[in-house]
TrEMBL record:
Keywords: Membrane, Transmembrane, Transmembrane helix
Compositional bias ranges of the Polar residues kind: 41-51
Organism: Capsella rubella
Protein name: Nucleobase-ascorbate transporter 12
Biased composition (Low complexity): 1-13
């Protein structure tokens, strides 16, 4: 019990409270964080961010619900919190009067048992669809229904503290654990479900950067196919030789801002057409290869184990949130090009993901899991009907003619609507071949520039911070314990290697762990790595079918922007959700998060607006203007390369957020519990608990050849 709780038996209002008696010692993982458990009727947040329940509630939580036919999380007794009264409040009440001749003393419990009042023991409960627990027999015999929250399984997650708790937690939260191998049919179904739920994260990034480089519809289709191929290969490598967690690798939004900054560099403004696309892609490839090689060295050398001491939830949360917030100038301004299509797309995603999220079909929440593909299909079908019925057809105007070649002022007025609202302006599907094998260096030999490579090296550190948060959060859901620091270093090193592959194949971005993995695992309750591996194999097969890439490349740009509004909002929220592992109400953390988020928006705005007059007519669209800062930023020296690096890095929101958060979190005093310091497993735990070794050890006994490399293993 914490020092702020009154001692049982003390008078109400007594201050300071009486010292507490010796409490049950915490588990080994909690000792390292200075966690002090409470045994009152209130739940407390532990360092891992999970809820530590009182003894009586935990015993009832972990009992299987035989009436439901499976192990299920059983809520604590209603009387424990009835009318807002907790056990703490009950202890503060004066003791009842002694029994008289007209009263009978209740029977004493046997020694060593947990004393529970009779009125707290309902005999039988029946849960209806509204979350009401009907009590058929109780201490008072009234049988009045007691209202219970119907989402107890969603909101209460207990971190396993022993092997027995691990087995119970898997049954409670996940359909399949990390090492479970369901049948071929479940693996195929859940694998398709897993990748469809993350469709937006896999394909939206190339749909943004390729048009920005001046690529044609055929180029978009080829890049999309390449992204699918590289995602499948890198995911297989990561689940086998990386963290071994069921995490999909793909083009992260972390790489999108630096890619757009490189694309809009002043030296590329004179290029046009296909030459522009191939030249910029080769520049991106060179920068990604150098930055990813730096990330690989960071992981495999063991330096990541040292950096992990500086990376905590208070650092991860604002850094990842700043990534999503940085694209506000791109989202709705592009949606506004065709409001009747874009707004409907956004509303459908919101309705499916929020208002219909509890609707289940065959025990699957289809609207929550498939919110992005369902809304995309409906909106695309509606736009197709509008196009076919002539809603966007204007007499004498051809949507395939470039705007610069349109002479008629009347047609020029409607060109924007025809370009962004019609669904037949893209010829990617018709021009795509049926079979195409993505191969390395398909765009040419990479071009290496030290200034762009340095920018990507810094971005690779941000991507590593993003992945660290995903490793920790996903391990609490699917594994017996969090990975060791060596496993995290090994995974970061492999991410660097797979990003080198992405640079060689020419995806336009690096390959890293997608932050949306944690949300997908929590929603689908599927933690088996076999499911992700089978889905990765299917992804590789689809990448060889050119028509698949052509179909995805033909998604109208307004719909892409609408989905990105939702995805970037999700990315921001997932970043901030890391605060659940710390004391989010602490004034220390509130100030640090507030400063990091505010200055991550304000400082880049200063760099982006510096030297631009209100009446200046820029050649790039308004949603690309934040990424041309290298040509007019305030940092000016005699070295043009240094000017480029400093102006580009300091104009990125995630870089400013990371710098401020990592400095303040590691210099401002605060307890480990308050900071929510990540608790990683150690080698002693791996030796003592075989389940931990089985979760993270390398397959085919490869690890025995590298046992001397302690900093990249268990």
């Amino acid at each position: 019990m914490s020092s702020s709780d009154p001692k049982p038996g003390s008078k109400p209002g007594q201050w300071p409270p009486a010292p507490e008696s010796a409490a049950m010692p915490p588990s080994s993982w909690a000792k390292k964080t200075g966690f002090r458990p409470k045994f009152s009727g209130e739940t407390t947040a532990t360092d891992s961010g999970q809820l530590s329940l009182p003894v009586r509630a935990r015993q009832q939580e972990t009992q299987p619900d035989l009436e439901a036919g499976q192990a299920r999380l059983r809520p604590p007794p209603a009387s424990a919190v009835a009318n807002g009264e907790t056990d703490k409040d009950k202890r503060e009440k004066p003791p009842p009067p002694p029994p008289t001749a007209t009263t009978t003393a209740p029977p004493q419990p046997p020694p060593g048992s947990v004393s529970v009042p009779v009125k707290d023991q309902p005999v039988k409960r029946r849960r209806d669809s509204d979350g009401v627990v009907a009590r058929s027999n109780g201490a008072n015999g009234s049988g009045d229904p007691v209202r219970r929250p119907g989402r107890i399984e969603e909101t209460v997650e207990v971190l396993p503290q022993s092997m027995d708790d691990d087995l119970v937690a898997r049954n409670l939260h996940m359909k399949y654990g990390l090492r479970d191998t369901p049948g071929l049919v479940p693996i195929g179904f859940y694998g398709l479900q897993h990748y469809l739920s993350m469709l937006g994260s896999l394909i939206l990034v190339p749909l943004v950067i390729v048009p920005a480089m001046g690529g044609s519809h055929e180029d978009i289709a080829n890049v999309v196919s390449t992204v699918l191929f590289v995602c499948g290969i890198t995911t297989l490598l990561h689940t086998s030789f990386g963290s071994r967690l069921p995490l999909i690798q793909g083009p992260s939004f972390v790489f999108l801002a630096p890619a757009l900054a490189i694309i809009n560099s002043p030296e590329f403004q004179g290029l046009n057409g296909n030459n522009n696309f191939k030249h910029i892609m080769r520049e991106l490839q060179g920068a990604i290869i150098i930055g990813s090689a730096f990330q690989a060295v960071l992981g495999y050398s063991g330096l990541m184990s040292l950096i992990l001491r500086l990376v905590n939830p208070v650092v991860v949360a604002p850094t990842i949130a700043a990534v999503g917030l940085s694209f506000y100038s791109y989202g709705f301004p592009l949606v506004g090009k065709c409001l009747e299509i874009g707004v409907v797309q956004i509303l459908l995603v919101i309705i499916f993901a929020l208002y219909l999220r509890k609707i289940s079909v065959l025990s699957h929440r289809i609207f929550l899991i498939y919110a992005v593909p369902l809304s995309l299909a409906i909106t695309w079908a509606a736009a197709f009907l509008l196009t076919e019925t002539g809603a966007y057809t204007y007499k004498g105007c051809d949507p395939d003619v470039p705007v610069s070649n349109v002479v008629s002022s009347r047609c020029r007025k409607y060109m924007t609507r025809m370009k962004y609202c019609r669904v037949d302006t893209s010829h990617a599907l018709s021009s795509a071949p049926w079979f195409r094998f993505p191969y390395p260096l398909q765009w040419g030999v990479p071009i290496f520039s030290w200034k762009m490579a340095f920018v990507m090296c810094v971005v690779s550190i941000i991507a590593s911070v993003d992945s660290v948060g995903s490793y920790h959060a996903s391990s609490l859901l699917v594994a017996s314990r969090p990975p060791t620091r060596g496993v995290v270093s090994r995974a970061i090193g492999l991410e660097g290697f797979t990003s080198v592959l992405a640079g060689l194949w020419g995806t336009g971005t690096g390959s890293t762990t997608l932050t949306e993995n944690v949300h997908t695992i929590a929603v689908t309750k599927m933690g088996s790595r076999r499911v992700v591996e089978l889905g990765a194999c299917v992804l590789v097969i689809f990448s060889l079918v050119g028509k698949v890439g052509g179909f995805l490349a033909s998604i109208p740009q307004v719909m892409v922007a609408s989905l990105l509004c939702f995805m970037w909002a999700m990315f921001t929220a997932l970043g901030l959700s890391n605060l659940r592992y710390s004391e989010a109400g602490s004034s220390r953390n509130i100030i640090i998060i507030g400063l990091a988020l505010f200055f991550s928006l304000s400082v880049p705005a200063y760099f982006q607006q510096y030297g631009i007059s209100p009446n200046s007519n820029l050649s790039v669209p308004s949603y690309y203007q934040p990424y041309i800062v290298s040509s007019h930023g305030p940092f000016k020296s005699q070295y043009k390369g240094l000017n480029y690096v400093m102006n580009t890095l300091l104009s990125m929101n995630m870089v400013i957020a990371f710098i401020i958060a990592v400095i303040l979190d590691n210099t401002v005093p605060g307890s480990k519990q308050e900071r929510g310091v990540y608790v990683w497993s150690d080698s002693e735990t791996a030796t003592r608990e075989p389940a931990l070794a089985k979760d993270y050890e390398l397959p085919f006994r490869v690890g025995r050849f590298f046992r001397w490399v302690k900093w990249v293993g268990i």
